[in-house]
Amino acid sequence: MMKLNNREITLMVISVVVGLLLGMILVGSSDDLRTSLFGTAAEDKNEEQAVATETVQYYLVDVPSAQDWLAEKYPANVEVSQVAADELAKLIEAFEFRSAFLKAKEDGYVDAILPQMYAALAGVENVEALKVDENNPMSVCLGLDDDLYGEPGIYLYLTVPANQVKDVGIPETAAWKMLDEPKSDTLYWQLLACYPEPEA
After folding, report:
1. DSSP per-residue string spanning the chain
2. pLDDT digits 0-9 by tens, 51-107
3. What are the φ and ψ backbone dihedral angles of 23, each rounded to 5 degrees?
């Protein structure tokens, strides 16, 4: 077996390092080469996100404004939903928010608003006859925005298929904010409950 001296070993290590650096530079500077080596997983993911944003629209509306709209849609249910909306809107002032929210949920205030809003978005006249379409990406969530530098409050976060927005008749007012992208979990934003409940 041939023994390498220190000089030959050093030259070999330098050659390997230089080769790796050149390879990295070539891959980084060539989109075609990068695609052929690593595929298009990242591009596919970006395209999926773009398609998802085109097929659904996201809205944020404060609970009192949502209740005003629901009162027009379901006048027979206005008394129950108004009480629920008032209680949910007051949660932002609770000293122990988590405890207050769990109590509001236990008292049925969450269930009095979310399914009703879902039914209104789905165009269902009788809330009692509401059935969730598993193929429809629509959802209604209750969220807490506790940003002290913004507008802290309890909001409904809506995901509505783009082709249903016009039929739904979502109010074109400042209270109903159409978002450019999904509202993700941030330091100040927290989803509290959704209808339908997301799969585990």
Report:
1. -PPPPHHHHHHHHHHHHHHHHHHHHHHHH-HHHHHHHH-SHHHHHHHHHHHHHHHEEEEEEEHHHHHHHHHHH-GGGHHHHHHHHHHHHGGGG-SSHHHHHHHHHHTTHHHHHHHHHHHHHHT-S-GGG----TT---EEEEEEE--TTS--EEEEEEEEEGGGHHHHT---STTEEEESS-----SSEEEEEEESPPP-
2. 344 699 999 999 999 999 999 999 998 999 999 999 999 998 888 999 999 999 999
3. -65, -40
